[in-house]
Write a structure and sequence with these properties.
heterodimer, A: 373 residues, alpha/beta, Alpha-Beta Plaits, 2 domains, eight-stranded mixed beta sheet, five-stranded parallel beta sheet, 13 helices, 13 strands, 48% helix, rod-shaped, B: 120 residues, mainly alpha, Four Helix Bundle (Hemerythrin (Met), subunit A), 5 helices, 78% helix
């Protein structure tokens, strides 16, 4: 008992002379020992109360009732016992049996007659394996718990943030992105025509009812098309594409979403018109580089985009008449093949030094082709 | 003495294995001396009623306990019976079992002398 190892060993041997010798020798190494006279007894011990405490099994092969081979086979077939190391006790001249047992999943073998050093080596190696396995299981369980917590938080956050942004919070890569980075994005800004007048005359209940319907409908489409919703501000909303998640053909995806929004809005508007509300929907879309990341202050951060592209989208949206989807030159160039467009000419936008060419999206070519048939 | 009944090296190992506890070894030898005649009888009976598996198991147990206690040469004699128990000719087996019975006496005597109850 030099370094005082710990663990419980089950000794299985039908001969009482051999069994008591092994029990004594294992105790001498500092382990606790339980014993069984044959395989059936051993399995009962392992499966019963306290069976989980067994850290290693020393198993004789030739036994009445249930021999070592069958005991080993049953242990390895049982998910609860599979990980318990089994050391086969074998005569030195019977290596064929040892090989067979190792193939069946035995950890090691103890040649008989054995000496203290070999017994010690075999036991400590097997118990170390078992200990490692136990640690790994604990670790996996804790890991799963942790992941579950993170996932719960992420799901909870996703009620408040864009799902893409919520996902950022829980990854290493996401942290880098939150710190701030440059990326080419497509920015989509939408707001309602006639909303200011409406809000001045409408009852608060009406006003909120309309906003809720509008935001619910639009929010659903943002998710469907994979956009990142930066914010809702009353009737205005800013969505960008290609960040934090990369979106192939983000310009086209943005335009498809805008067209879907316009058509959804028409459905809403038909209902609203019956109630006497006169609202219109305008969209501005621009493409360009922006700085994206965490914006705000301790306690209230948002994931935001800063750059000319965002301003352009917002100005184009202000410029849009009801039902128009206005594209910057660069955005139009990227989606020319996708849309049926019309030029609006050069437009002076607030904060932009020179007039810029602007296009309106009349519809998608694929839709035009379908309705023409 | 190349043909010593007991292998001194194994006996030294054995003593070390049990932490130098001679009393325990005495008990172990007593258990061996109590069980072995039954195993010899089981071998003979197994042959008599042609239960070769029982014969083989008895020979196996006697082989391994004897080896544990350092009776290496005797263990080899037992092993010969064990490995041939299922297929060998009965007359040959009878002769080999008799050889085991004969070889057992000096082993028992040596163990008794070396580690037996008299030492207490």
């Amino acid at each position: 008992m030099t370094e005082g190892p710990s663990g419980r060993v089950l000794v299985v041997d039908d001969s009482r002379v051999n069994r008591s010798l092994l029990v004594r020798a294992v105790q001498e190494q500092g382990y606790e020992v339980t014993e069984a006279e044959n395989g059936r007894e051993a399995l009962a011990r392992l499966g019963g109360e306290g069976g989980r405490d067994v850290d290693a099994v020393l198993l004789d092969l030739e036994m009445p009732e249930l021999d070592g081979y069958e005991t080993l086979r049953r242990m390895k077939a049982d998910p609860r016992l599979r990980h318990v190391p089994v050391i086969i006790i074998s005569a030195v001249d019977d290596l064929a049996s040892v090989v067979r047992c190792i193939e069946m999943g035995a950890t090691d073998y103890l040649p008989r007659p054995f000496d203290a050093a070999i017994l010690r080596a075999r036991l400590s190696a097997s118990l170390a394996t078992k200990h490692l396995h136990d640690l790994e299981r604990q670790y996996t369980a804790r890991q799963a718990e942790l992941l579950e917590t993170i996932e719960r938080q992420r799901a909870e956050l996703a009620h408040f943030l864009s799902p893409q942004v919520a996902a950022l919070v829980s990854t290493q890569e996401g942290h880098v992105l939150l710190e701030g980075h440059r990326r080419l994005i497509t920015a989509v800004f939408c707001d309602l025509r006639g909303f200011t007048a409406f809000s001045e005359t409408a009852e608060p209940e009406e006003l909120f009812g309309v906003l809720r319907e509008y935001q619910a409908a639009m929010g659903e489409l943002v998710v469907e098309y994979g956009g990142t919703l930066e914010h809702f501000a009353g009737d205005g909303l800013l969505v960008f594409f290609n960040d934090p998640q990369l979106v192939p053909e983000h310009e086209q995806q943005a335009v498809r979403m805008a067209v879907a929004m316009r058509s959804r809005f028409d459905t809403l508007q038909q209902r609203w018109r019956k109630r006497g509300y006169d609202l219109g929907f305008g969209v501005g879309i621009a493409v360009g580089h922006a700085t994206l990341g965490r914006i705000g202050f301790e306690g209230r951060y948002d994931y935001g985009a800063i750059g000319m592209v965002v301003i352009m989208a917002s100005r184009l949206s202000s410029e849009a008449a009801a039902g128009q989807i206005l594209l910057s030159q660069r955005a139009f160039a990227a989606v020319e093949d996708l849309v049926v467009g019309e030029s609006i000419g050069e437009v002076s936008l607030k904060g932009v030094s020179r007039p810029v060419p602007v296009h309106n999206v009349v519809g998608l070519r694929e839709e035009a082709a379908t309705s023409a048939r | 003495m190349p043909d010593a009944v007991l292998d001194e090296a194994v006996l030294d190992q054995l003593l070390e294995t049990v932490g130098g506890d001679r009393t325990f070894l005495t008990e172990l030898v007593e258990a061996y001396l109590a069980d072995s005649p039954g195993l010899l009888a089981a071998m003979r009976a197994g042959l008599a009623v042609d239960d070769r598996a029982a014969l083989r198991r008895a020979a196996h147990t006697l082989k391994s306990t004897s080896a544990s206690l350092g009776a290496a040469t005797f263990a080899t004699t037992c092993r010969e019976v064990e490995t041939n128990a299922l297929e060998a000719d009965p007359a040959w087996l009878a002769e080999r079992i008799q050889a085991v019975v004969v070889a057992y006496e000096p082993v028992a005597a040596a163990l008794q002398e070396r580690l037996g109850g008299a030492a207490r």
